[in-house]
Write a structure and sequence with these properties.
The chain is 27% helix and 27% strand. It is α/β, with parallel strands linked by helices. The strands form five sheets. Strands 3, 4, 5, 10, 11, 18, 19 and 20 form an eight-stranded mixed beta sheet that branches. A six-stranded parallel beta sheet has the order 14-13-12-15-16-17. Strands 1-2 form a two-stranded antiparallel sheet. Helix 4 packs across helix 5 and helix 4 packs across helix 10. The longest helix is centred in the last third of the chain and has 13 residues. The protein is globular, with a radius of gyration of 20 Å. The chain starts with a strand and ends with a strand. Its cofactor is Zn(2+). It holds the Pfam family ADH_zinc_N.
Amino acid sequence: MVDRSNAFGWAANDESGVLSPFHFSRRENGENDVTVKILFCGVCHSDLHTIKNHWGISRYPIVPGHEIVGIATKVGKNVTKIKEGDRVGVGVIIGSCESCESCNQDLENYCPEVVFTYNSRSSDGTRNQGGYSDVIVVDHRFVLSIPDGLPSDAGAPLLCAGITVYSPMKYYGMTEESGKHLGVNGLGGLGHIAVKIGKAFGLRVTVISRSSEKEREAIDRLGADSFLVTTDSQKMKDATGTMDFIIDTVSAEHALLPLFGLLKVSGKLVALGLPEKSLELPMFPLVLGRKMVGGSQIGGMKETQEMLEFCAKHNIVADIELIKMSDINSAMDRLAKSDVRYRFVIDVANSLVTDSSAENLKEHVDHGVSITSRF
């Protein structure tokens, strides 16, 4: 029987997706484990899909959250890379078989037995709950070191959104030659980080959007080279065949045909969003233009640590709105309407802990925290 300790967070109990206070238990720290006192947790669009069961795989109650930054408060005897007091991160996955082909290639995220941070079960059959909570216990092989200089609050979304855009850039050859032209479809939580990382890799970046609403901030603040509005037929025509790559971050239903037209011969479109309904895949532009469509999801632990180091080196963080845990339901409503610039992050430490505990953690929480937003 596994020893348990008490934990507290906010959970969804049904498909309404409404989150409310929830007491549950975590396993005691084992010899291979790290116990993490959670400081911040990003709010991913996957959290919204999961609490509302949009994908039909949700098992309630669910404590969401897989963009976790905190402090290691206990480490098992077999743990050598992390010590108590270290600033650490926990992302989308917390386990894998560690013996399959994918695991042997440092691609644990593609392991057929991958264990997700929440809405999953551990090997002992117990349910895993995520980072909208005060503490989490994780196998040390799935705990990441947060580099010095990377802020805890605005760095948290990198643990999902950051690696989700970094990994395909590496795999699909976008980083092999500077000056290539990348289109980023959708300027949200994923898209705005894709712009920043793409520019750091030396790419020429064009944001693709349905409206011109975000044009100035895309260019002036995020650093995009240009902005293309899909409803402007003349500009879409002028941009035909100009892009080497497109990263499609849109998770809503949308047409792929206009995007294919923007690609050069042999261009690549990489889908990252997960719409509720399948998209139509027109074959003629693919065949006649030798174009490719691929997909990608996060990355393995080695690549995720590499991404964090890269972002720290290039001063890349998410643009965030810092919220209290009690604000999470209104934040979810806004997220469903794409009304966020560009990632909500929950100030977990100051939302859930007692006054005395907050004082003890104060020295760890001052890594670039802002009251309402961070750009």
